[in-house]
Amino acid sequence: MRTEMGRRSTLGLLAAGVVAPNAFAAEGPPITIGFAEALTGSLAAVGKSGILAMNIWAEDINARGGLLGRPVKLVFYDNQSNSANVPGLYVKLLDVDHVDVVLSGYATNMAAPAMPVVIGHNKLFLSLFSLAINSEFHYPRCFAMIATGPNPKIAFSQGFFEIAASLDPKPKTLAIVGADAEFARNATDGARQNATAAGFQIVYDKAYPPTTTDYAPVLRAVRATNPEVIFVASYPADTTGILRAAAEIELTARMFGGSLVGLQTAALKQQLGPLLNGIVLGEQWVPAPALQYPGVMEFLKIYRSRAAAEGVDPLGVFLPPFAYARMQVLEQAVKGAGTIDDGKLADYLRDHTFKTVVGDITYGKDGEWAEPRLVWTQFRGVKGNDLAQFEDPARETVLLPKAVKSGDLITPYVAGH
Fold first, then answer.
1. pTM
2. Is 411 in contact with 307 (CB distance < 8 Å)?
3. How far is Cα 228 from Cα 230, in angstroms, rounded to an integer?
4. Angle at 295 between CA 45 and CA 63, to 5 degrees
């Protein structure tokens, strides 16, 4: 990886839908890489951080001669964080723009609606942080960039229940809370299976409408069932509302957390501050010393040097390393296969291991990672809303995997303390 890139990307052109990184070192027609991403709406804070990561890759690869001697060009459109927009945008990418390679945008709810279109065109599809979107299709040309492994629904919450079951005495009762949307449904499906396997009695299990804005009634209903453990699957806007409501009603439990998407971002860390304390969170990766894979901190240094000017997440520890790693996988596959033919790329992806900034990746069943690599953490000692405090690994203690554990679970959870 170069420590200096070519000219800076122009995220100001996002509204036009196309960014053309410099291609002075490569010749011929560009290899076009198409996707729909959240540039506006509730997922934009995360989505735009991934675009910066991809532009860093594109500038670097073009400065090194491109792929197969051709420059690469990113072609993308704003899905507005609205899943209803996704199918039409992928039809446009494939039937009007005729892109060579197709990627998903960030998030399950934005990737799943593209699947029927991509399958109908028999194209390779590299997804990003999309939970179990191929578990029903079993499409052989779909490959995931998410650390959940071959059984994603189970793996996504397995660590949470392992930690809960380790409490002494072992808890008996559990509440499951999630939105009535693709991501949360997949996450809570797995949570039920893990809860049953661990012997928990589920005393609350209801989905709230995605249009919910007041979460206090939801959490009061949860509290009325007196659960010892509370598992939540939520998207960023929901996550903020749920944690503020938890503090408002002074919710307590022996353990609270799960897949609260958004807490990994600088924006929500800064907004919520001490409301994070005590939450057990499933992470794809954290920059703990034992998890600093080759190249990842160098990538983050480049990303962070440009984040402020691009108006994106200044920390970049959530999506950007994986957005960059996805492009590394694509680069290695194209170079290894010597082609951009979808079928040959899929064959190459199935049969090789890829070196990336988030570690080595090998693909298994349904294009998922062959082995899960999720991290479970707990926030503690967060004071005020100063973002700099989150650069200290002690603010987010690693509970699992045991090989990189940095502390034990602190219990009980008392919202807002």
1. 0.90
2. no
3. 7
4. 80
